[in-house]
Amino acid sequence: MSVRPIxxxxxxxAAFTWSAxxxxxxxxxxxxxxxxxxxxxxxDAKKTLLLKDFHPVPMLHAPAHNVDRAKYYVIDVHxxxxxxxxxxxxxxxxxVVEIMNNTNVKTVVILTGMWGEKLQAVIDEMVxxxxxxxxxxxxxxxxxxxxxxxxQEMVAQLDDAxxxxxxxxxxxxxxxxxxxxxxxxxxxxxxxxxxxxxxxCGRLGIPVSIHSTDPEAxxxxxxxxxxxxxxxxxxxxxxxxxxQFPTKESILAARDRMFAKHPHTTFVALHxxxxxxxxxxxxxxxxxxxxxxxxxxxxEAELGRQPSRAREFFIKYQDRIMFGTDNGMDEEMYRNHFRxxxxxxxxxxxxxxxxxxRWEIYGMELPDSVLEKIYHKNAERIxxxxxxxxxxxxxxTTQRN
Length: 401
What we know:
It is built from 14 helices and eight strands. The protein is an alpha/beta fold.
């Protein structure tokens, strides 16, 4: 066989291989900009951005419908503006009324009015100068819990508060979690020493607004599984996890027994009965106890992340829900709540985001008939039960004589 054909074939193959190599795209590794499909080496080690510095801007293109004024006038049944306890910073009353006028808020209920001269100061500053714009509640003086006549003293104090102008009784979450007698024992919500107080509220026709427990996450470990980790880190005294505290369930059970024991007294279970994460429980409460109302102060975040379930709940219990904020006084705060209630907007910040958790909320677009009840009709019905001023004044006259 001749060597020449073999040599020619070899030269041809070499030339073809060289040509193919010249026309082939250059190979690149991922570090040179190639789009890859595997996680970068050492990616976890680079995730060092602090949670407090993480402020993602949503790329979702969704309609936004701002609501400057509520569709119907509003009674805000949960506020602390210029209260006796100074829970919020004091604000000039004229500015408070301006905010209300700008947003169609007719009346604000100041829950923490205390008693005696402190109560009187709130009435003189907020109630008397602005008729119909403010309602103030009184409270129980727990410093007297060990007095032999505690029950009678508190009934007399309540009558005095109503005679001064109070139109309800407010109970903070310290009952069941913090109030103790001299022996160190926690006072339970259904303690029999409190029965005469609840009964007197029923006699006077004034509601009892009661805050019992706190968000469910507050009763769990403050760790990387807690959805309110940031909030509890900022407010460690809001954590009720541990054997030194009763369980959330046991506190609510005591409260519900107390509700049932006093059927002629109207109770407002604040913060959506303080279990908006569990609307099945709240539904059962309302189905079982007709003397209980709810409001949603500082629980827009919890309810807004479950829009279908919440809307169903609000429509079903439209006669039992009242409008409440518990978020200070600000036009934009009210407008955020109106947007949540009135529009079908999707994926927007709740008021105070991300303070209660890193999630967004969705509007419920409630029917007009439901809105009107929640905004003011239900509250007017409850406050319309008042029959206590003459009774309280008559009782005071009898006691003086």
